[in-house]
Amino acid sequence: MLYTLYETQRTLMEPFADLAQAAAKFYSNPLSPFSETQLAHRMSAGYELMFRLGKDYEKPQFGIRTVDVDGVSCAIHERVEIDKPFCELRRFKRFSDDPDTLLKLKEQPVVLVVAPLSGHYATLLRDTVRSMLADHKVYITDWKNARLVPLSEGDFHLDDYVNYVQEFIRHLQQKYGNCHVMSVCQPTVPVLAAVSLMASRGETTPLSMTMMGGPIDARRSPTAVNNLATQRSFKWFETNVIYRVPSNFPGAGRRVYPGFMQHMGFVAMNPDRHATSHYDYFKNLIQGDDASAEAHRKFYDEYNAVLDMDANYYLETIKTVFQDYSLVNGTWDVRSPDGKLERVRPQDITDTALLTIEGELDDISGSGQTEAAQGLCSGIAPERRMHCEVKGAGHYGIFSGRRWRKHVYAKVRDFIRANQPGQPAGAVRVRRVRTAAA
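Structure for Polyhydroxyalkanoate depolymerase, as requested:
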């Protein structure tokens, strides 16, 4: 019922948002006589803010058209390599007319970036992908909005997530011989499970795993996200946050955790910060600070675009990761595509190097939660494990923005390179590293 009420409200607000957008343009258009009035800038800014607060935010595009590879501009062609009911494996293929650059592109490592399925779209990692493309062949998991997946496609479970990751890894291994895996936030847990299961079966595992800001052990330095999951019962989540998709979407009738509820939760964590940001946007519009205003738009176009998650996957994640701590307790059994239950044993991983990265000020995955993977993966030789703490970085700072580009990316690139066949082995012995952040 709540989902239907929300959609009704959104539909009713849509014409008012469009009207506000038209009014903003009316007062700011230099050809309009009203743009010369004393209050024109304030009227335009007010209507623009009203439009931004009331509009519907659709899935953003990655929009990466070119990338610089050692001074040579390479064109990017984005395409879907594998299309699954709940996820697309998306590739960013690079093209160049320069023979030397083309040879270099062919020899660079292959990286599967596993994006989070926790409310936002994979485009949240746009900055991550753009940086990685300079030195790697890049693939990413582009998760679909569950409200757009028909009921005929069945349900989506946490086990399915793990199986998807394994399928994508095998696809890249078959195509290139092997690959590296990078997981950001939520997927650190299913990625570790996927690689563990492959190792237990004796399959070839990825050359390296890079895990960034994820809840491997959510008991350590619990955050507001962790506390919510532990203070509420499983039944409470099932009763209060799960709704059926309304009839106007392809996934009508599917039980989901709605994206708009996740978005409200995001905003509720830092309401003052968002209020200040919107007020600053209003002032920037009045003052004609187009650069700051555009930066605000880009951030909130991404931040406000959210997707629904299948109820089974969401509830199982709450229970497995945040309530039962099944991974660290050694009690997690994953059902394979053929229906067989398999125990997740990270200690069975021996041939995959491990890099864990945390932000010093991360308020989503607290300090030590990601580093816990180091202890679980005891079968990996110490010289092939490394932990990095990024000083002054919050959750998003470890994979996006200035700190990511200037400090974190180089460590990820060098770690992957050190574990790429044919490259000289680097000293990556496990240690706690604090990266400086100017």
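The first helix runs from residue 2 to 28.
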